[in-house]
Amino acid sequence: MRLRFLLRPGWLALTAVVFTFAICCFTLLSPWQFGRNTEREQQNAALETSFTAAPVPLTQLLPPGSVPGPHTEWHLVSITGQYLPDKEVIARLRTVQGEGAFEVLTPMRTTDGTIVLVDRGYVRLDSKSAALPFAPPPAGTVSVTARVRADETDPKNRDAFADASTGGRLQSYVVDSRVVARAGDLDIRPGYFQLDLGQPGVLGALPLPQTDSGPFLSYALQWIAFGAMALLGWLYFTVRELKPGGALDASASPSRRKSVAEILAEDELAESGHQK
Questions:
Q1: Is the dihedral of CA 132, 145, 143, 68 positive or negative?
Q2: Coil, strand or helix at 92
Q3: Is the pTM here over 0.85, yes or no?
Q4: pLDDT of 262 above 70
């Protein structure tokens, strides 16, 4: 039967590759891009809301025990308290507007005793890739307006450390309240709060992300198309091989190209036949 070609090792290997690729497109790659598109839509909605909404007290938006999430991130909150400069940590390996930078993370004890992490913005690098000098936070009680941010996560879960690039200051690989809490032996609430331009203690204010939709939806649709094309291609070649004369048809004898000598001999025979 012609269906036997489906059991040939080469065809089985091709089938496995095609179906594995298609399954990955439909169940992994496309959903991943759809998820990123949803995250971008939520981020854009939160940003657009924050542009017009007035700041609210921190405990009103994030009651004690709550964690920043997609529906609260980027919203503006008002916080009153005192900076703790001796517990400051600098986040390294940051990029701001295409250039290297450090971000300065300073804990603040609020008037109700809660400790929060404030991202005071960025400082540039000097010629030796060390942090340039920056101003300390103001002393005493201050009121700031900041944007709610969710903690970053370091896959290696590394603690803060100090070296010459920050003049002996503690530095971390991510902006994470848990890392700063361990470094300063503090009980810091989850998340951090990013200062806007003009706030007490701000350094270089971090730019806000763009509110464009991004390419994620297009990428998701492309992965679906790639998976469908792979399956359709496999189906096309399967149907073609089921027909007589297919490339895998063992009964079909392959045609041999004639040599130049054979062609010339045939021409001579044809001419002699015409002359007769």
A1: negative
A2: strand
A3: no
A4: no
